Amino acid sequence: MKRSQVLWSSDTQLPTPVLKRLDEALLACGYSYTSGKTHNFYHYPARFSPEIARCVIGTFSRPGDLVIDPFMGGGTSVIEALTTGRRVIGVDINSLALFVSLARTTPLSARDEAAVRRWAEKAASYANGADPVISDPSVRHLPWAIRSFVATALRLAEELPLRRQRNFSRCALLRLGQWALDCRDFVAPRRSRLAKKLPQLVEEMLGGLGEFVASCREAGVSRRTILRNRVLLHRSAVGLEEDEHLWIESARPRLAFTSPPYPSVHVLYHRWQYRGRKETGAPYWIANIPDGYYASYYTGGSRTPTGEQHYFDMVTAAFRSVRSVIDPQGWVVQLIGFADTGSQLPRYLEAMDTAGFQEILPTEDGKRLGRRVPNRKWYANLKGPVDASSELLLFHKPR
Ligand SMILES: C[S@@+](CC[C@H](N)C(=O)[O-])C[C@H]1O[C@@H](n2cnc3c(N)ncnc32)[C@H](O)[C@@H]1O
């Protein structure tokens, strides 16, 4: 296919078929989370749907291009970029985002798979074993049955010889923890139920990983190339250009596709909640990664006026960095929601303008593409309303 057939190059409006595709993908976004590939590994809060990621990446980049997501979260865009033959850079300040995105994009061999299956069976068979002693304070508020089952399974996972096997196992325990806490209004499941569930989840996840590798292969990307095609960074998007070795003049990102935190919208990226109330830092304990920050660290600012100013300063600085690394002909496409569209959208557009980007309105009548914010389970800890139909898909080009 010729470049012009794939990329929207007009500065004024999107061709009708592209508009229709994006609209449909936006509609699917949030109402039906597809669980294919490795999208079932972890329910990252405020994630966007694979449909919209795939549609935007397919419209605004070509196979072989470099795509960047400066706020990658659980890595939805990373997966969709890799399975459509793009190279990708994913960035996030949350170590949990990096952990999950790595696990979701690291292929396992048949031997790895067998080792992980054996681990899950063994962990399940220890369900009635002695109570392990857990000194980690971050597991406070994690119901006893989950804590004790997971602690034993973690100890067994440490016996796995390869790091990718251990990380996959830890990821399976993250998934198990989310599943167990999802029944907010009931008591948490007993150890025997967890023991039954773990091997099932491992099987589903291995299936998902197999699908991911097969999709990459269909796009002409071999198992080994997958690892070469992705760079995942645990760092702030602010100052990205300082990682000089990443930015080769001849191969700059064609597309930045992302969903930054929403201004004044509180999402718990770093905690799980038990019965919708009590917070636990257990995900960091399970993944064995550093934690230690407040919620506002991950949302760009608290919901106070000062916090909101911090947020807009962060967005300006982050996109200024994106501006300095992106291809001058490239695109920034982002899904962003507002608690108060009337006052926050103009500030957001001003931040993008200051960062060096010009907004491109997609339709002839100057309307933006948007969608209603659906009711998402792992999004339910969102406090403060998001305007109905205020989640927008914004398009920018470097000025
Ligand atoms: C809305 S979430 C992204 C969700 C993602 N699109 C997905 O599908 O999973 C926003 C992410 O931005 C990250 N973040 C916040 N401030 C950041 C910064 N300065 N640099 C990089 N990432 C940041 C948060 O940790 C969070 O993971």
Short description:
By secondary structure, the protein is α/β, with parallel strands linked by helices. 45% of the residues lie in helices and 11% in strands. It has a domain at 3-98 and 228-276 and 294-398: Vaccinia Virus protein VP39 (Rossmann fold).
Describe the 3D structure:
This protein has 399 residues and is an alpha/beta fold. The chain has helices at 3-6, 16-28, 50-60, 76-83, 95-104, 110-125, 144-157, 163-182, 191-218, 223-229, 282-287, 295-299, 305-325, 341-355, and strands spanning 66-69, 87-92, 230-234, 255-258, 272-274, 278-280, 331-336, 357-359, 369-371, 391-398. α2 runs antiparallel to α3, α5 crosses α8 and α6 (110-125) runs antiparallel to α9. It binds S-adenosylmethionine. Residues 44, 46-48, 70-71, 73-74, 76, 91-94, 97, 236-238, 259-261, 269, 298, 300, 314, 318 line the site of S-adenosylmethionine.
Bound molecules: S-adenosylmethionine
Low-confidence stretches: 1-6, 375-383
CATH architecture of the domain at 3-98 and 228-276 and 294-398: 3-Layer(aba) Sandwich
Based on secondary structure, the structural category is: alpha/beta
**Any idea what the CATH superfamily of the domain at 3-98 and 228-276 and 294-398 is called?**
Vaccinia Virus protein VP39
Rounded to an integer in angstroms, the radius of gyration calculated over CA atoms is 21 Å
Mean pLDDT: 87
Could you state the order of secondary-structure elements as H and E? Answer: HHHEHEHHHHHHEEEEHHHEHEEE
